[in-house]
Every structure is written in structure tokens, then in C-alpha cells.
Design goal:
Elements lengths: L5 H16 L2 E6 L5 H11 L3 E5 L2 H11 L17 E6 L3 H9 L3 E3 L11 E3 L2 E2 L7 H7 L4 E4 L2 E4 L3 E4 L7 H9 L5 E3 L2 E7 L2 E4 H4 L3 H22 L7 H19 L6 H30 L12 H26 L1
Antiparallel strand pairs: 1-3, 1-11, 2-3, 4-10, 5-9, 6-8, 7-8, 11-12
Amino acid sequence: MAHVSPRKKELVDKLVKEFGQSQVIGIVNIHGIPAAQFQKMRRKLRGKVNLRVTKSNLLAIALEQAATQKAGIDKLKTVISGQSAVVTANINPFRLFKEMESTKTKAPAKGGDVAPDDIWIHEGETPFKPGPVVGDLQKAGIPAAIEKGKVVIKKEKLLVPKGEKIPRLTAQALTRLEIFPMTVGLDLRGAYEDGMFYGRDVLAIDEAKIMADFQTAGLRAFNLSVNIGYPTKSTIRPMLGKAHTDALNLAVNAGILTKQSLPLILAKAKASMLALASLASVDVSAEKKSAPSGQPPEAKPEGGKEEKKKGKKEEKKGTGDAASEPGSG
């Protein structure tokens, strides 16, 4: 049996005890965090989270021993990699994840770091005066030049694609340009609570999206309940309102007179009357407009006047004849 130093055994026992007294246990990656920044994070979390840096093998042993008291806690071993630390807290895993994310800040890249995203350099002026800096930027693959007494970037360029290592000269040039592509902070890889293991993919939820999904689901459930006639505390009033509206529409269309439908039926009749009157008015106007402009109205026959004149002549003639009769006697 290999000899185990008393100090290591004491540290493992201390971790096991701490795991037993904590509601939530998590494993965080601390790779690339400068010492000064790490201490600052520690102070920020004081009173909320206990953070302990220990060797990965001792941490794994402590988790195995703690599994006899807390079933499933040894699953945290699967997320131990690189420089790790253990956090214990009495807040739920999702709140713990948010606390860890709040420690993250942008940091300059170092040669050999893996680009977390595409690293672009954009066209424009730089704060540098003409000098050797132009050559340094060009060696880093940056299209720099001097124009009008200023150092400028000639065109936009993708320096390092996502997932590729950042060359040393490129990292130095980015730092000089105050471009910080790296993110450093406590990265929670997994957490344990009450027999359940939560991976980072579960903990890293988009709260805005989750709330939007809840609202969409609630609205769809509400509409389904109303449309199929399933009464609940939330849907009974809209359902009664819909039933009243449907009944009123039926009464109006069928001409059934009620206290509520009568004003609507009369209004509908009036609207139909006005529409009909409007159509009649349009027909009369169209008939008037159909006659050619400037043409006088059709003349009435002159036969009546001629007959009147003829009657008058005959009347005079008759009078003359009657006057001559006594003379003839």
C-alpha cells in the first residue's frame, strides 16, 4: 500500500466534511486567470461561495469518499480537467452558475492561447505615431501603413479563426492595439445538488429565451382551452364573452328580435337601405350623364299648335257664315 502523507489525508478529510455540510458542490476551471485577478474574484465571492484550489487527484479521492454519504456526487469527477478548483455554497446550482459568470472579464491573449471566436482587425487609424510599430504590426499579419503622418490599418482582416492558436507576435500586436479577445474567470463545469448532477450545458440557460418560451406556451394553452370549450379559472370569462358574441351574431343574422339584437338589426336594415338608395342615385346620375352634352332636349310634336290654329280659323269662318244668314233673308 502506497504511503499517503498526513497532510494530504487531512486535506481530503477536510474536503469530505465540507461536501457533507454544503447544499451545492461545483467544479470550476481556473485556467489562465492571473493570480492578482483570482484573488480579486475570491474577495468578491466571499460570504456567498467558498472556493478552494486543490490538486485534481486529491479532489477526485475526496469526491469518491463523499459518495458514500451523498450518492452521485462522484459524477463531478467527469468535469475535472486542467487547473480546477472546488466551490461549495448554499445556493441553487443555477444561481451559483450566475455568480461564477459574473467574475468573467476580457483579457489580453498570450501566444498559444486558443481563439474563443474569430479575431478580426478592422480598417482605420491607430493611436501610434510612425515608427518601428508599423513593422511589428506587419510581422503579426496586420496590414499596417503610414498615411498622412499616422499609422493606419489599410483593410479589415481575419487574423485568427475561432479554435486556432494565436501566434505570439499576433498576441503581442493585439495587446498593443488594446484588443482583448480572451475571457477569463471562474468557469463552472458542473454542479451537484441533492443527488442530481448538472452539467454546464444545463446550467448555461438563456433566461430571456426561457421566459419567452413560457409566455408562448401559456398563450397557446389559453387559446386551446377557449377554442375547445375547456373552462378554467382563466378562460371562463373569455369563453362566456365568445358565446355571447356568437349568440348575438346568430340572432342578428337570423332576424330574431331580442333586447340586445333589435338595435343591431335596425342598424343593419338602415345600412342596407342607405346602400340601396345610394345605388339608385348612382343609376339616375348615370342616365343623365348618358345624354350628349349641348344637345337640346327632345322637341315635342307641333301637331297640337297647328290643330289649335286650324280650330280658330274654322271658328271665325263659322261666325261669318252665321252673320250672312239674316242678310240673305
